[in-house]
Specification:
Blueprint: H1 2-33, H2 44-72, H3 77-89
Length: 105
Amino acid sequence: MEEILIPFIIFSFIAIVIKMLVDASKEKARLRYSGKQADNSLTQGELRRMIEEAVAEATAPLMMRLEVLEEERPQLPAAEALLQLDDLEQGEEEPVYQPSRSRVS
């Protein structure tokens, strides 16, 4: 009985180790080719969301400054002249542009 038991235990141990190695390599290949990432990696959607948030955060001060400049733009005399020229190109009546005389001498 002992003559069969020792080779049986050795054979079983080798078979179990081989089975574990084959299962591990199959799982590794399945994860690689199925598009699933490991726990410590990001999905494409998560990465895209992080980039969008970073860009929005970085450009927020610029967007606020741009809004301020756009609000100030119609108040400038040069902008008024450009608007009147644009009206002329569209065929409207010729507006009379009178620059402000608030120059300090």
